[in-house]
Every structure is written in C-alpha cells, then in structure tokens.
Amino acid sequence: MNSVRNDLQLRLARAEDIPAIMTLERFPHYRTFVGNWTEDEHRAKMAGTDCRYLVAEEEPGEMAGFAILRGLSSPNRSIRLQRIVVANPGRGVGRRMLAAIEDYVFRTLKAHRLWLDVFETNTRAIHVYESLGFRREGILREAILRDGADHTQLLMSILDREYEALLGKSHGEDRKIREATAGPAAES
Ligand SMILES: CC(C)(COP(=O)(O)OP(=O)(O)OC[C@H]1O[C@@H](n2cnc3c(N)ncnc32)[C@H](O)[C@@H]1OP(=O)(O)O)[C@@H](O)C(=O)NCCC(=O)NCCS
Question: Which of 89, 106, 112, 164 could hold 77 in an S-S bridge, CB 3.0 to 4.6 Å?
Fold first, then answer.
C-alpha cells in the first residue's frame, strides 16, 4: 500500500477564505507561535501585489491549512514564508504542504530564496523545515515580545540550487510526497 497520501491540493486563496484563515491563526494552542491579523489587514494584503495566500485542501472546500508568502514584488527574488498553519497537526499535512510551497516558490515563481523566521521553541516546525532542506542561518535574540515574554527566533532559508539538489537526491517518500502534491494550478 502506498503510505503517502496524495490528496493534498494547494490553491490560491480567495477573499471568502479569510474567516477560516482567521480561525486557524487564532487557535489558542498556536498562540505563542503564530501571529494574527484583522480581516481588514488580510483583505489588504491579499489584494496587494507583494503577498500570496495559499490554501491546502485534502477535501474540496475543507481548509487543511494555509500559508502566506511575502516579497513577491521584491527584485531580490527572495520570498518570505510569513505564516504556515495546519488545522490538524501531526498528520503529515504540514510537510506535504511545505513541499508544495517549495515547488510553487522555486518552479512557478522562479524565486532564488525562500526564508522564514520561527520561534526557537517551535521544535515541530523547525523539524519540518529542516526535513525539507531549510538551513539555520541566524538567530534574532529575544526579538518578539508576546504575552509578556521575549522570544528568540531562528532565521532559516533554502536557496533555489539547494532545492534542486534536494530534489535530485531525494528518493522514496520525499520524492513521492513532492510528486503527489500539486501546487496552485493557475494564477487566477
Ligand atoms: C508547524 C506545522 C505547520 C507543521 O505541520 P504538521 O502537519 O503538524 O507537520 P507534519 O505532521 O507534516 O510533521 C511533523 C513532524 O514533526 C515531528 N514532530 C512532532 N512534534 C515534534 C516536536 N515537539 N519536536 C520535534 N519534532 C516534532 C513529527 O515526528 C514529524 O516528523 P517526521 O515526519 O519526520 O516524523 C503545524 O504543526 C502547525 O500548524 N503548527 C502551529 C502553527 C505553527 O507553529 N506554524 C509555524 C510557525 S508560523
């Protein structure tokens, strides 16, 4: 039996997805690790040219997760994964979603670099990022004040050539995951 679920689809988000996105980013148990924006902020960013909102679905109409990319208007081809959140963690959705995001960023957007910051205590997220080729590149010491505590962040990134090398090297599950996970089919 093929152990890799192949039913995750990544699509571009629409304005009607914003309430579900706001619900996910406000999950109480994600509070430390995930920022959140108001509906107006989401609407403005979604309508702008610098951000791209992506939604992952296992079943049509059911949001399994979302991600926000920033920096699309930058001449540096350096895209920031601003936020990635899944509805049910620990089921492999985040890993498949990130693989699809990498494919989208490097193959469709032709970016040079994909980067993010993550709380150093968010070991699950760091594990997923590293398993898909992200490297640690720096530390922002006590950079974020949240809920009365100063949190240290890790900076992580993957470059286009590292992504291609990873794809070339990957076998078995990784390759099946990448091949089975579709990126947004259209830009509209
Ligand atoms: C981070 C996140 C996107 C990952 O998605 P996910 O669906 O939970 O991840 P997966 O199930 O695909 O993979 C989890 C991996 O982490 C491992 N893991 C689980 N808990 C862990 C922990 N505390 N420390 C280290 N690794 C851990 C699992 O074993 C698995 O690794 P494996 O595939 O090598 O066995 C998701 O957990 C999430 O939305 N978290 C809350 C929001 C968040 O922190 N977002 C990132 C910062 S914005």
Answer: 112
Contacting residues for 30 by C-beta, under 8 A, at least 6 apart: 24, 85
User: What is the best residue among 4, 128, 146 to mutate for testing ligand 1's pocket, by most ligand atoms within 8 Å of CB?
Assistant: 128
pLDDT digits (tens, 9 = 90+) for 101-114: 999 999 999 999 99
The number of folded domains in the chain is: 1
Q: Which domain holds residue 94?
A: 9-178
Contact 113, 79 (CB under 8 A): yes
* Listed range (11-20, 57-66, 167-176) with the worst mean pLDDT: 167-176
- Has residue 186 been placed in a domain? no
What pLDDT, in 10s, does the model give residues 12-28?
999 999 999 999 999 99
Q: Which residue has its alpha carbon closest to ligand 1 atom 9?
A: 94
Task: Looking at the CA of residue 98, tell me the nearest atom of ligand 1.
Answer: 3
Q: pTM of the prediction?
A: 0.90
